[in-house]
Structure to design on (117 residues):
């Protein structure tokens, strides 16, 4: 049986999980880290991770808030245009410029998933 501290910790963990599933950053995730599968993420410590709590969002098609802008060329969702070496579209349907996305431009994207190297 849980005592008051245990119940409080459990409720805190459930609230964090709910926020992450909604694509919202928990308030104490104030540092940046890099997940091997998700790329740049908000985290409570600076680290390189093999997996992270955001992996669940990536696997279930939910957004992941990013600590900084990313490049389309580094994302699995970037679909290069057949007739131009730098233009492409987003497979996730994210807003694009008038003439599509330029591959190396940095932009905000909650749907970014890094290409495995």
């Amino acid at each position: 049986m849980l005592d008051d501290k245990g119940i409080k910790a459990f409720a805190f963990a459930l609230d964090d999980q709910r926020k992450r599933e909604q694509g919202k950053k928990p308030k104490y995730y104030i540092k940046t880290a890099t997940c091997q599968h998700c790329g740049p993420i908000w985290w409570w410590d600076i680290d390189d991770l093999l997996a992270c709590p955001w992996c669940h969002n990536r696997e279930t098609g939910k957004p992941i808030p990013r600590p900084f802008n990313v490049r389309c060329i580094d994302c699995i969702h970037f679909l290069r245009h057949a007739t131009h070496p730098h233009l492409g579209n987003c497979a996730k349907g994210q807003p694009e410029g008038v003439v599509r996305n330029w591959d190396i431009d940095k932009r905000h994207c909650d749907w970014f998933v890094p290409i495995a190297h």
Q: What stands out?
A: The first strand starts at residue 31 and ends at 35. The chain has two domains: 1-68, 69-117. The chain has a mean pLDDT of 92. The first helix runs from residue 4 to 21.
